[in-house]
Amino acid sequence: MTDRAATDSTAVGATTGRQPSPEDVVRRYLAVLYNERRLDLVPELIAPDEVRHAPGDTNVLSLAENTERLEKMLAACPVLRFEPVVVITQGDLVSVAWNGWSTQTDGRSYVFAGVELFRVRDGKIVEIWNSKEAKGHWPMP
User: Fold this and answer.
1) pTM of the model
2) Domains of the chain: which residue ranges?
3) What is the pLDDT of residues 79-107, one digit of tens each?
């Protein structure tokens, strides 16, 4: 599967009626929800009680809380883009090493990278493990 096929807003599962794979869901989350700023996809891609883990912290977010979190992030960053570099899927778990680009409302621009682990059930992200992003980009494999 090409990255374009997996991330396009009409990707597998988006219009075919069949359940998208966990990897398809995560790729749409990054490429369409974030990169295309499609917050209308929050209820389609994120479970209503998503569990978010950070080192030493766990929170459960409702759809409204997730939407508010994303609205604030996108408002603070008129330019915000993520590109998966390495994606590994095992069952309902999808790990992504990604590169990011951001320009904030004050004009400051950043390049950064991170790793996230997603759990997807019934076509929705139910759990995410986040670590702090770092300056720079991952090399392409």
Assistant:
1) 0.86
2) 3-135
3) 999 999 999 999 999 999 999 999 999 99
